[in-house]
Amino acid sequence: MEVKIKIGISARHVHLNEETYQKLFDEPLTVRNKLNQIGQFAANETVSLKTEKGQMNNVRIIGPLRKYNQVEISKSDARIFGLNPSVRRSGDLEDAEEIEIIGPKGSVKVKAAIIANRHVHFSLEDAEKYHVQDGQKLSLVIDGIKKGVIEVEAKVSSDGFMEVHLDTDDANAFLLNQGDTQKLIIN
């Protein structure tokens, strides 16, 4: 089955738990803009990320606060930091690299840096409609100047909004823009 699907490009960002957020900020997390994934938002608050080899400022926090800390970076970012993080599904922090997160109030060092795997979000209803299981491997067929086929993993959740999420390295490699439409092959 072939389905047209929108592309979401995910730049570096962090997810924080309540304890870490309180160490970094005095004020509550506030909404800058809502994201397509239901209940999620880009916060006004940003942090700096730092290792011995590099630092990046103004890295967006994605809310709401979670039960874990996670720093999602691209391979290009990892090179600047001198890191070699694993490619992981969100929430899987096995072998995550240590990185310092700096806020206006303080800083913490956490093993939280990963490269997020390519994935496509599905609501429970869309997963049932397309007969897709959580974790199922699907093919994204990219048309345009730099064509290609890449594997994406289905991520099924009650708050899912159907779109593919690629990091900036993947999007740039295929000359994709936020909101482009491509073909998803569901086997």
Report on this structure.
By secondary structure, this protein is mainly β. It contains four helices and 14 strands. The chain has two domains: 2-7 and 118-185, Barwin-like endoglucanases; 11-116, no CATH class. Helix content is 14%, strand content 45%. The strands form two sheets. A six-stranded mixed beta barrel has the order 1-13-10-12-11-14. Strands 2-5-4-8-9-6 form a six-stranded mixed barrel. The longest helix has 7 residues, at 18-24. The radius of gyration is 17 Å and the shape is globular. It starts with a strand and ends with a strand.
- Beta-sheet strand percentage? over 45%
Strand order of the largest sheet: 1-13-10-12-11-14
Q: What is the helix/strand order? A: EEHEEEEHEEEEHEEEHE
Mean pLDDT rating: 97
Note the total helix count.
4
Structural class designation: mainly beta
* Cα-based radius of gyration, to the nearest Å: 17 Å
Number of strands: 14
* Beginning-to-end CA distance, first to last residue: 6 Å
Helix percent reads 10-25%
> What are the low-pLDDT stretches, counting only 5+ consecutive residues below 50?
none
Main beta sheet: strand number and arrangement? 6 strands, mixed, barrel
Number of domain modules: 2
Cα shape: globular
